[in-house]
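Re: that backbone. Tokens:
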């Protein structure tokens, strides 16, 4: 059975980088202080890990409301690091210290046994002591709605993310906004399955790269997928 959910999730494109600047910074500063805060109340079923920047954090429990139908996971991160080349110069690099912070919330709401809404909100900032041009305030908003029964399922998501993950082809960090939307619907029959999926995304560069102007890389993209299959033969 082909699963469209996950094949085209535009928000993952931004995060598929060989080595992000933040990971490089942690390598340069192995003693960076990191503080993570997650909800630790109402322990029950094993909670789903939450994302705090590039880290997957296992909460100590679930903060729940509405008869356990609503889960909330507040999160925070504070780190201090060292960057050997924040201005990304090929020669004459100047070293600098930086501080990184993040505040966020992940929530999961079960409307009915078949319907769920999930949301994630993050804001982060990185500030250098001297290299002010590499400071950034970014964030992420992600909303997902799911419905699944024995005969059909549909999934809709949309979001926005601002960051400066390095470009794959150059390894240089470039600030940009990434907007995305995704939807799919699948029908399950006794022997038949059919579905359709659609996604759209827009990437807006907020600064020039080493070899291009910001406006030259802005782009829109849309994809449509349809599929179906039918089992043959008879049951014995």
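Recovered sequence:
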């Amino acid at each position: 059975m082909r699963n469209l959910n996950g094949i085209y999730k535009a928000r993952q494109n931004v995060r598929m980088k060989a080595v992000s600047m933040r990971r490089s910074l942690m390598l340069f500063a192995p003693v960076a202080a990191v503080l993570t805060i997650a909800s630790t109340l109402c322990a029950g079923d094993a909670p789903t890990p939450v994302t705090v920047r590039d880290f997957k954090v296992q909460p100590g429990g679930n903060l729940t409301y509405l008869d356990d139908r609503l889960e909330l996971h507040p999160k925070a991160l504070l780190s201090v690091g060292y960057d050997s080349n924040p201005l990304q110069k090929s020669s004459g690099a100047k070293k600098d210290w930086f501080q990184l912070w993040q505040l966020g919330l992940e929530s999961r709401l079960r409307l009915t046994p078949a319907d769920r809404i999930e949301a994630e909100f993050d804001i982060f900032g990185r500030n250098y002591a001297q290299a002010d041009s590499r400071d950034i305030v970014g964030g992420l908003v992600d909303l997902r709605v799911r419905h699944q029964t024995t005969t059909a399922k549909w999934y809709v998501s949309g979001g926005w993310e601002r960051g400066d993950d390095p470009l794959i082809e150059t390894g240089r960090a470039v600030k940009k906004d990434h907007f995305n939307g995704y939807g799919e619907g699948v029908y399950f029959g006794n022997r038949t399955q059919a579905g359709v999926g659609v996604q759209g995304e827009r990437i807006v560069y907020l600064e020039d790269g080493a070899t291009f102007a910001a406006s030259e890389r802005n782009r829109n993209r849309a994809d449509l997928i349809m599929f179906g299959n039918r089992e043959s033969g008879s049951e014995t």
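DSSP finds three helices and twelve strands in the chain. Residues 1-44 have pLDDT under 50 and may be disordered.
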